[in-house]
Design a protein that fits this description.
6-stranded mixed β-sheet
Length: about 750
């Protein structure tokens, strides 16, 4: 049996693994197989065996026809792979072997093989009639084009459009995963699992982009793949230069793929001609840096007791002299190990590098939102049935048991539907790793990011809205909070500053904390700036929380000079508005010289709210439970009026202004005096007030409904909810209520 060499053996093993998962037309998997066959072709050319080259070309050609749906039977492909694994040119003179090989070429549709007796010349390259992997997009479009031409949207078939759309979505996801893994790689450059996790997405992008003829994307992904492949073989060492150039590659690929996405959406060209040559040249320069050390395979063989440390050291020394040889090949040649033992070690290496994943399916977010909405409607309908007078008057125990079971099923369905919208906050947290890295470089500071609780789950829509506020706060932490390395040393701190992200559940909310160990907020400077901006009076006496809250005013900044990171007073007011839009709040804690902490409190989901149902006259309102401090019927001694400040209620030792919802919303209340009714003390943004109402109807979880375009801007109302009797209750927006009360 011919020794195809370790490189070709590895490709064969990878192909076998891919083939095990290909049941239908799986474009990414087939792309990976085609890539491996292409690599094998290049390596086979070095052996100078034309028959081996023809066999690889025949298998490639048949695979391409499968992709183009010109053939549908996968058996010849599988037969070809099996035959390739046992290919032996030494037996070519044997009539049976030659006939078997000839039959295989016929099945694969390859009739020009260099079998003995053929009068055709040996082929070092594929005929013009063969389709190269990078040119499959041409065949998909059924048109003759040159290599440089890119697919034109109007000429694509519907199937091609689907492939492109899938390619865009999967590639953007893959690039995001690469960014996250690169951060891990920087911490542990020798981690082969991490290198493999970065290599695989590049490999897939390269393969699929070749099918759809996105040549620039294909070439750039191929260059990055080559760089990582050399790192996997330990011929180059991962360092800051390598990571930077891969990050640049990710950014450029992301831009090019987003251009494809835009082209698909607007009927434009899919390739806007972004120049990739400069970056590819930089990658080629890094590829020239060589380092030996196939030590992982050697270590596996040592662990298995197959070779000794001395044998491995001798092989490594010889590898330095014969750089083209691999460790396994050298050990086999020296008679130190059997080839099957090296193959076993390679399999173990690959098995260790493959990541096991849970089974997932992709669901359109619109379908998921519809499911949540329909589940909410089901909950409402079930509540209405239970409140129906006919049901209430019925005296049927079996009916009540069925209704109770229906309630349990409905509640379980609602919990399941809501949990489907919940995703870990990990992806958002890990995006900040690169942000911290870039901010540290740009500011000349040494900063690291620590993350805790990144598996905490939160509503998908909340996660999407949380990204921008977090970016603003982290930028401020690095620019204003973290000191320069020299300043930190003078203060007795470590030169490297720390920004820490924490996420956890607390009291039905998700809490996200952004902490730094910098110099903290300068209260005196904040007060000075607030006075100069006429935000507070000169004789104002503010609590720490009130002082810190001043930084959320539009245009407020204590920066002495504007940097490319921050200092223009734009950001923190946006943070506040974004968090309030999510029905959340931000609190600030700071200690001079020890750092600051921004604590964001958010609801777990935007679809359901827990609140107190109250009545004012004939109208019902829902007060978010998160804002409620207490409810009580005030005594006469607790009620008073203060000149210039209106009605006040004494609650927990504090005089709080009284808000009358009947006056704000123009409704008629049953009572006029608070002592004849009820009040609810509420808190919002460190401010407290009491709300006057007629009756507490109970605590409920309600599904939030949008009031529509015409009513969306009504101040003081966040939305509506359908009650058990089919009527609508209005959900109060506490920010708007406080503002309306202040203006009255």
């Amino acid at each position: 049996m011919i020794d195809l060499g370790e490189a070709i053996r590895e490709d064969l093993e990878a192909i076998a693994l891919e083939m095990a998962d290909v049941d239908e037309l799986d474009i990414p998997a087939m792309g990976n197989i085609l890539n491996h066959l292409g690599d094998m072709e290049e390596k086979a050319k070095e052996t100078g065996d034309p028959l081996l080259i023809d066999l690889i070309l025949a298998i490639k050609g048949y695979l391409e026809n499968l992709i183009l749906r010109e053939v549908s039977d996968q058996k010849p492909l599988r037969d070809g792979i099996v035959f390739l694994q046992s290919f032996n040119p030494a037996q070519i003179s044997d009539k049976g072997y030659r006939e078997e090989l000839s039959d295989l070429f016929d099945k694969l549709g390859f009739n020009n093989a260099n079998l003995p007796g053929n009068e055709l010349p040996n082929k070092e390259q594929k005929d013009d009639t063969q389709i190269e992997g990078e040119d499959i997009g041409k065949a998909l479009n059924n048109k003759e084009t040159n290599q440089e031409q890119q697919p034109i949207l109007a000429e694509l078939e519907e199937e091609d459009l689907e492939i492109l759309e899938d390619f865009v979505l999967e590639s953007l996801e893959s690039l995001s995963s690469i960014e996250l893994e690169l951060m891990n790689l920087e911490q542990d450059p020798e981690n082969l699992d991490t290198i493999n996790a970065i290599f695989r997405p590049f490999h897939t992008i390269k393969g699929v982009s070749g099918f759809v003829n996105l040549k620039r994307i294909n070439q750039l992904a191929h260059s990055a793949e080559n760089l990582l492949d050399k790192a996997r073989e330990k011929k180059i060492r991962i360092d800051e230069r390598i990571i930077d150039v891969i990050l640049d590659t990710v950014d450029l690929l992301k831009k090019m793929i987003e251009d494809v996405q835009e082209g698909l959406s607007h009927g434009q060209l899919l390739d806007k001609g972004i120049d990739t040559q400069a970056l590819r040249t930089k990658i080629e320069a890094l590829l020239s840096l060589d380092e030996d050390g196939d030590k992982l395979i050697g270590q596996i063989l040592i662990d298995q007791g197959v070779v000794s440390d001395g044998d491995l050291d001798q092989a490594l020394e010889k590898q330095r002299e014969e750089s083209q040889r691999r460790i396994g090949e050298l050990l086999v040649k020296e008679g130190k190990v059997e080839s099957k033992e090296v193959v076993s070690a390679l399999r173990k290496q690959k098995k260790a590098s493959r990541q096991t994943t849970d089974l997932h399916i992709k669901v359109d977010t619109e379908k998921l939102d519809n499911l949540v909405n329909l589940t909410g409607e089901l909950v409402i309908a079930q509540a209405m049935i239970k409140q129906n007078q006919v049901i209430l008057n019925a005296n049927d125990m079996e009916l009540y048991q069925n209704l109770s079971q229906l309630s349990q099923i409905t509640a379980g369905l609602q919990d399941t539907a809501m949990s489907m919208r919940m995703i870990p906050i990990k992806a958002t947290f890990q995006k900040m790793v690169r942000l911290i890295r870039d901010l540290g470089k740009n500011s000349g500071k040494e900063v690291i990011l620590e993350m805790h609780g990144e598996d905490t789950e939160i509503d998908r829509n909340v996660v999407e809205e949380l990204y921008e506020p977090m970016v603003h706060m982290i930028r401020n932490s690095v620019d204003h909070g973290i000191e320069s390395p020299e300043e930190r040393e003078r203060s007795g701190k470590d030169r490297t500053g720390v920004v820490r992200l924490d996420a956890y559940h607390q009291g039905g909310q998700i809490i996200v904390e952004i902490k730094d160990d910098g110099k903290g907020l300068d209260k005196e400077r904040i007060i000075e700036k607030a006075k100069s901006s006429n935000l507070i009076a000169d004789d104002s006496h503010l609590t720490d929380n009130e002082i810190y809250s001043l930084i959320f005013h539009p245009g407020f900044s204590t920066a002495k000079q504007i940097t490319n990171i921050s200092g223009r007073g734009v950001g923190m007011d946006v943070v506040k508005k974004s968090i309030e839009k999510l029905r959340g709040r931000v609190e600030i804690n700071s200690r001079p010289g020890q750092g600051s902490s921004f604590i964001i409190s958010l609801p777990l989901t935007l679809a359901i709210i827990e609140g107190m149902l109250v009545r004012v006259g004939k109208e019902r309102y829902i007060i978010p439970a998160l804002t409620i401090l207490e409810s009580f019927r005030p005594k006469k001694s607790q009620y008073s009026t203060v000149e210039g400040k209106g009605e006040m209620i004494l609650s927990r030792g504090n005089l709080l202004p009284l808000i009358r919802l009947d006056q704000i919303f123009g409704v008629h209340s049953d009572s006029s005096h608070p002592c004849d009714a009820l009040v609810v003390a509420v808190e919002y943004q460190n401010k407290q007030m009491c709300i006057f109402l007629d009756e507490l109807l109970g605590k409920e979880e309600v599904v939030i409904k949008n009031l529509g375009e015409r009513l969306r801007d009504i101040k003081g109302i966040a939305g509506g909810a359908i009650m058990a009797d089919g009527m609508v209750g209005l959900i109060l927006d506490m920010a708007g209520v406080f503002e309306m009360a202040s203006n009255n």
